[in-house]
Amino acid sequence: MTLGGAPRRLCLTLGALARIEAALGLDDWSGLPARFERLSGAELSTVLAALLEGGGEDPALAVAAGVSEAVAAVAAALAACA
After folding, report:
1. How far are the Cα atoms of 24, 26, 38, 70 from residue 31, in angstroms, in the given order?
2. pTM of the model
3. If you write DSSP's letter for every residue of 29-51 in order, what string do you get?
4. Which residues of 30-54 are buried (b: 16+ CB within 10 A; e: fewer)?
5. Pick from 71, 59, 66, 79: nearest CA to 8
6. At 58, phi and psi to the nearest 5?
7. What is the number of structural domains in the chain?
8. I need a labelling partner for 42 at 20 to 30 A (CA). Which of 7, 26, 64, 70 fits?
9. Tens digit of pLDDT for each residue in 17-66?
10. Which residues form the domain of 16?
C-alpha cells in the first residue's frame, strides 16, 4: 500500500486487532465489520495507525494520510487478511 507517496506495509496482527477493538469499544472482533460502517475520522486514523504499527511502520504516518488514502489502505489491509 502507498501512503504519503511511499510504499508502506500494513498488517492486522493480534496486537493491532486488540488496539482496534479497544479504540472502537468492542468486546470482541465479531462486531468489527458493522462498526467499520460508521467510523469517525479519529477512529479511522486510529485503525490505520494500528495497522501501520502491525506492519512495522511508524503509526504517526496515519495522521498525515488523506481520507480516501486512509480508507483505501485500511480496506486493502483487511481484504488481505480474508
Report:
1. 10, 7, 12, 21
2. 0.92
3. GGGHHHHHTT--HHHHHHHHHHH
4. eeeeebbeebeeebbbbbbbbbbbb
5. 59
6. -75, 115
7. 1
8. 7
9. 999 999 999 998 888 889 989 999 999 999 999 999 999 999 999 999 99
10. 2-81
